[in-house]
User: What shape does this take?
Amino acid sequence: MNRHVDPRATLPDADGIAKGEVLLDVRNVSLRFGGVKAISDISFDIRKGEIRAIIGPNGAGKTSMLNVINGFYTPQEGSIVFRGKERQKIAPYEAAASGIARTFQNVALFKGMSTLDNIMAGRTLAMNRNFFWQLLYYGPALREEIANRRKVEEIIDFLEIQHIRKTPVGRLPYGLQKRVELGRALAAEPSLLLLDEPMAGMNLEEKEDMSRFILDVNAQFGTTIALIEHDMGVVMDISDRVVVLDYGRKIGDGTPDEVKSSQDVIDAYLGVSH
Amino acid sequence: MLAKAKAGTTLDTFPKYLVLNAERFANRPAMRHKDLGIWQGWTWKQQLDQVRRFAIGLSLVGLKRGDKVAVVGSNRPRLYWSFAAIQSLGAVPVPVYADSVAEEMAYVLDHAEVRFAVVEDQEQVDKLLSIAEKVPSLREIVYDETRGLRDYDHTHLHAFEDVQDRGKSAMDASPEALALWQASVDQGSGTDLGVILYTSGTTGRPKGVMLSNDNLVKSALHGNAFDRLGPDEDIIAYLPLAWVGDHVFSYTQSYTAGFCVSCPESPETVTEDRREIAPTYFFAPPRVFEGLLTALMVRMEDAGRLKKKMFDHYLAHARKVGEKILNGEPVGLLDRFRYFLGEILVYGPLKNRMGMTRLRVAYTAGEAIGPELFRFYRSIGLNLKQLYGQTEACVYITAQPDGNIRADTVGVPSPGVEIRIADNGEVLYRSEGTFVGYYKNDEATRATKTPDGWVHTGDAGFIDAEGHLKIIDRAKDVGRLRTGGLFAPKYVENTLKFFPDIKEAVAFGDGRDFCAAFINIDLQSVGSWAERNNVSYASYQELANHPEVYRIVGTHVEAANRKLAAEPMMASSQIRRFLVLHKELDADDGELTRTQKVRRSFIAERYGELIEALYDGSTEKYVETEMTFEDGRKGRVRATVRIVDAPVFGVAATPVREAAE
Assistant: This one.
């Protein structure tokens, strides 16, 4: 048993970016759908090892921003620099291969598959043997399967979901499904983890559990996390820095305390008479 | 074989047993833990190595002979290893309930003056750090699970593995370390304190029960012999570490008998893990058996019609002959064959589902088990037995021997245990497992343990004709009739409540001439009788007062009296007069606790007139009672309650009549 080795040592972190340096830089990004401007001229950065929250009222462009980062949308203007490489257009699978993993606002799991299989699916990118080897099964493909299964078991252990290992996720309560989804994203061993409303629809206890897992992922694996969240209490508690969006514009950026005292942010959230 | 040759050896401490086991059972499994979805195992040799490294590491961190060490967490191999490691240094483990709140834990740790703590994970570390101020004696904390603890200040905080590594390097550096440790093990003796277990204590502060190595070893050996436990048993450790039951079953018996203990993956996976291990020896409080059965029944509701039919049919058959077969009583050939078919079709798969396929001995203890529940498990061929025990006795006071099992007793005195019934009905025992005393609480020790070693259990009971102990009530609730006979209200009430028509009963008799009772009928049960017999009624009150209902209840009381008459100690508690109460006892009116227990003193006050009527010979009484409706409104019920005499049997009849004259 050597599960007590430093998990960070097992991570393929070859980008050479030290903790605290810029991992992802969003530069003057604008995104339009026809005439609708979802995001206009937004710039911010995400530093390695931090928990970065993106907040804002409904329709502020938060999810669009996440979709831009992981290549689902291509912005009309601006660019994104990830790990020092500038890119304007990237396919989601390329983003995933480059180390960006995400979860979704509405749980997007394979409902009929077990927790184990769902998380295993997150290891797809780590399966390097081709179709031929997979077909042969014994030998390299099997060794690879065992190594991947071990990684998945570590995640199951980490998220404390051993008891639902073999349960089809469709039968699980929502809070647990969210946790499985987090597990699947973690299975990719991402260097940047995007969480789209990880606590939406959860009760207080589930929220506390999830907050703890997010903090633990950050502390234990050193994963950089960008999250969208509505629950202000949670955001202010767990994030290092916060970006505030409103109507597609950035209206605040800084530590939770700075953001909380910013007049623009207060106006956006509480409304203001014009 | 070496294993056989040394199997009979007895020693006086557990570290000594560990060293012996590493020799006699060298490569047999000692411990298993499901981790990352796979059962990981350690042999006795490896277990010795793990314990030794940790012990030497602990001594380097500064643990001294006589120190107290808290052990907090769930059932994990490393926490069990710490017991032996701590004892090997002459220190004393103090297992603490992992789920106790900070306040309670602070009290226990401070009272025990623990210097070290070995805990499971961050949650426990945080809890200990939060109460550190209140536990001035606490110096060092060792934790098992590293997650989340990386950034903590590690001046007084140590990872289990790091402590072991220190031990390992010391052992590698010089052979002296090992020799010192062995010397420390040899220095241990039977009279040393083995463990301090804090009793949860429903009233007042928890008390620390000090058990010596002799207590623990000897009662474990007695227990092993009683159930013929050997190195081939398999058990799963899933009960709280701080509970004496777990300590005895998962630690002391494992070390003395040499069997393997399996730790589940997490508290939520116990059922599944148990199925995989299929223990041969199993111990659980009644609620676990109840939970298993409920889960089973719920699943059966979803089963196909054929399966459901088969299930019902064969369970009915098992109820008829299963217990007899298990007890070795004569059963017809055809019934045996049908039972055999049932085993293949139903009982076998059921036992497999519950992880009880290989079960040889199972115990239920902690509280009384419902007879129905008990019989269910026995009828499908599981050797479930009852045990009566206490922390103060290293568990064993009485246990049911194989083949001599009854649902309503807790068995015969365990080997090496003497039992005596005090004049007030309280059960006293004396054995080699009897505790040394309460830690730093001589007053409580004196109140519980007599100078010649008898321990007051606080429970009242009697020994029946076959030598089985029957527990009837808490000793403090037991009173006396004016005739001198023992009056155990709960026993009388339970005898009445055995009948489905009787929902609740309240017995009176302490300081009176005879025993009398209030009875509540069960609206569902009696209601369905009324429906079948065209008896119309508008309310509980009307049904309760129906002459036919009185007649039915009367026959039940008569049957209950017959039962009571059969027990010499209880015969004088036969119910001479009873009444059917005009309203249901209700927690909203304060008559029951929220857990549906009768609040006897409150009822006695509220219905004082009725109680007087029971004893002054009147045949009816008019009363008005305030009651609370479900919507919270209050109202008054008026009724004329009839009081009826009931026949009594046997010897009891005479002395009471004399007293009545």
